[in-house]
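Action item from last meeting closed. Structure (299 res):
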């Protein structure tokens, strides 16, 4: 009987300790650890070229564009189209120059319910996004050519617009919209406490946390931390298309590299693709070895 009570008390104590740290993370305080900082805005332009290659419509191409918006009625989302933090997720069909009448025909088919943009994009679009049914993902202001941006951001959710660039004629649909979320910062001391909470209760890995190391395999071989999934930034094009099967966008996501630069780039990519709570480990594993565990190798 005593043994059973002791075992039960032990389980309760483990859970209380974990909840204490977990709740603290949910309610930041300047006195306690795990405060959420405003992301360093200079990193917004640091997404490497490899990311732009994966998301073709985010390339800063220069073109002369005439844009016209033609929207169908759609339910309001409660997000103002003038909100500077608004982001939109866009799908489109790209046809060669001079295909305006075909684009209008496609739009009519979609509005009449006889076809979908996804099907038409796969069959006819000349953009690499055709393989994804025209989906080019979330776009931010200032990250696409200005006139294409104007067309997309003037279009309500679930509605359509058209624009013409030197690449051809676009039929654009706004699939989703959201308020932009910044990347948070996490110090190595805060990370140490979080990892300690996971050691106490590993159910937190299923319920709340996930950890990503974007260093290259040869770096991970030198030194690593427990619970981190290795997704090398150099292999971005291999794992990015499978992101939704590798990570859970609803969990708190902590991203690590050597000094904090590559992890910030990856963190921004995660945020742009729907992850709601992303934290870059400031100073990376080098800072962890200097400030938390001096026994860890440095390189």
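Sequence:
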């Amino acid at each position: 009987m005593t043994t059973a009570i002791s075992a039960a008390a032990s389980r309760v104590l483990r859970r209380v300790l974990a909840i204490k740290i977990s709740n603290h993370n949910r309610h930041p305080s300047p006195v306690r650890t795990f405060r959420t900082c405003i992301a360093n805005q200079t990193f917004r332009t640091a997404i490497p070229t490899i990311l732009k290659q994966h998301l073709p419509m985010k390339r800063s191409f220069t073109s002369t564009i005439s844009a016209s918006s033609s929207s169908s009625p759609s339910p309001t989302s409660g997000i103002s189209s003038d909100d500077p933090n608004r982001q939109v997720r866009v799908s489109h069909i790209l046809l060669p120059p001079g295909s305006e009448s075909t684009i209008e025909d496609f739009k009519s088919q979609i509005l009449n319910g006889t076809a979908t943009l996804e099907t038409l994009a796969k069959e006819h679009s000349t953009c690499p996004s055709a393989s994804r049914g025209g989906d080019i993902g979330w776009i931010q202001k200032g990250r696409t050519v200005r006139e294409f941006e104007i067309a997309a951001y003037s279009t309500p959710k679930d509605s359509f617009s058209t624009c013409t660039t030197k690449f051809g004629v676009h039929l654009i649909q706004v699939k989703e919209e959201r308020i932009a979320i910044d990347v948070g910062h996490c110090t190595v001391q805060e990370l140490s406490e979080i990892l300690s909470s996971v050691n106490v209760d590993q159910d937190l890995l299923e319920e709340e946390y996930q950890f990503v190391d974007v260093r290259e395999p040869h770096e991970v071989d030198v030194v690593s931390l427990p619970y981190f999934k290795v997704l090398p930034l150099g292999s971005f094009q291999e794992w990015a298309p499978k992101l939704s099967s590798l990570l859970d966008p609803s969990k708190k996501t902590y991203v690590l590299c050597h000094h904090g630069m590559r992890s910030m780039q990856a963190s921004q990519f995660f945020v742009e693709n729907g992850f709601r709570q992303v934290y870059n480990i400031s100073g990376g594993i080098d800072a962890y070895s200097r400030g938390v565990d001096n026994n860890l190798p440095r390189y």
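Note appended to the action item: The CA atoms of residues 45 and 143 lie 9 Å apart.
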